[in-house]
Design goal:
The chain is built from 2 helices and 27 strands. Strands 11-12-13-14-27-23-22-17-20 form a 9-stranded antiparallel beta sheet, with no helix packed on it. The protein has a 5-stranded antiparallel beta sheet with strand order 1-2-3-4-5, with no helix packed on it. A 5-stranded antiparallel beta sheet has the order 19-18-21-24-25, with no helix packed on it. Strand 22 and strand 23 form a beta hairpin. The radius of gyration is 19 Å and the shape is globular.
Length: 352
């Protein structure tokens, strides 16, 4: 197990951005940036043993700064949307930036994806870790409380990339952290031939601005049903209001609604790409997963000076539900002083 560090570039304000490349003994490589904790690259073998790129990303800091796709980044303080950027906490009303009109999205105008994180790396015989720390000041992007955030990436020799999130606060606040990696397991122009299985029988339908109504609906007999594996593109063009509103899949599937004191890792998804033979499995402690088919990727900067097209990759963003601060029926995202926010997600790569 090895970790290599190098300068990746500099922000528009001149601050250096470093890249850490984590390597295991099976050839898998994961590159993470200090800006946004961005997963800049994941390279894994295909069924013939050939190492290849399986994520979308950029070659320069400037491209990440001008992109609106959140490629591979840690997103927060609240991932996904909050309706109208408003929520009440203990009787006090808070107003956040509406950067995805009319709603708040992924932490605001300058979310965690554009912040520079402090890092610490460690290696052992069987794994390597990169820990990132960021202190979000009280009032940053309108959120209450000073939030101390730690995100730890762990790569082992089973080709598993673990992401563990921890946060504490000095005042009541709301927290919802995830990683916004886009995957394409064979480097094709779009992800529609990838086969997906979601171990979820319900989802949260939304209005035309992607805010949940509050209902939990079954997926059976709808294009949202991935309980049996099927190509991502099989039903994406159906005349189904949820798909038409979002230009494809961009919805939260329900993993659980109530959790005790334990935090078990639940199997959530399996993806198979027939041409390369690569597979991806997702496990998480989170209550939901946002499956997104890159419906707005057209024109976003890509590697080699090119641009991505619509649906060039897919996301499986493990998370709490959108607009949870305004939906008491959803699992709570409130974090109080003395408590610790902690969630974990594992991406396991393999071959068919």
């Amino acid at each position: 197990m090895k970790i290599f560090q190098e300068v990746f570039g500099a922000t528009r304000s001149g601050e250096p951005v470093y890249a850490f490349r984590l390597c295991n003994q099976k050839g898998m490589e994961v590159t993470i940036l200090t800006m946004g904790g961005i997963i800049q690259s994941i390279r894994v073998p295909d069924s013939a043993g050939n190492l290849g790129e399986v994520t979308l990303g950029c070659d320069s800091v400037a491209d990440y700064e001008r992109s609106s796709a959140y490629f591979g980044a840690i997103v927060g303080r609240y991932a996904n949307r909050i309706a109208r950027g408003e929520f009440a906490l203990n009787g006090e009303q808070f107003q956040l930036a509406c950067n995805n009109a009319p709603n708040h999205l992924h932490g605001g105008k300058v979310g965690f994806d554009h912040r520079l994180w402090h890092t610490e790396s460690h290696t052992r015989d069987d794994l390597c870790t990169l820990s990132l720390h960021y202190e979000s000041e009280d009032g940053e992007e309108g959120y209450p409380g000073k939030l101390n955030v730690n995100v730890t990436y762990t790569l082992n020799n089973q080709n598993e990339l673990g992401i563990e999130y921890r946060a504490t606060t000095d005042a009541p606040t709301v927290v919802n952290l995830t990683n916004h990696a886009y995957f394409n397991l064979n480097g094709s122009e779009d992800c529609l031939n990838h086969k997906l299985q979601l171990h979820c029988s319900q989802f949260t339908p939304t209005d035309e601005t992607s805010i949940p109504y509050g209902e939990i609906e079954p997926v059976n007999n709808t294009p949202m049903d991935f309980t049996a594996m099927k190509p991502m593109g099989q039903d994406i063009g159906q005349s189904f209001v949820q798909l038409k509103q979002a230009r494809g899949y961009d919805h939260n599937w329900v993993i659980w609604m109530k959790r005790g004191n334990d935090h078990p890792l639940n199997p959530v998804a399996r993806v198979e790409e027939p041409e390369s033979g690569r597979t991806l499995e997702v496990f998480t402690t989170q209550p939901g997963v946002q499956f997104y088919t890159g419906n707005y990727l057209e024109g976003e900067p890509a590697r080699g000076g090119s641009q991505y097209g619509m649906r060039a990759g897919f996301c499986l963003e493990t998370q709490h539900f959108p607009d949870s601060p305004n939906r008491p029926e959803f699992p709570s995202t409130q974090l109080n002083p003395g408590d610790t926010y902690r969630e974990k997600t594992v991406f396991r790569f393999g071959v068919i």
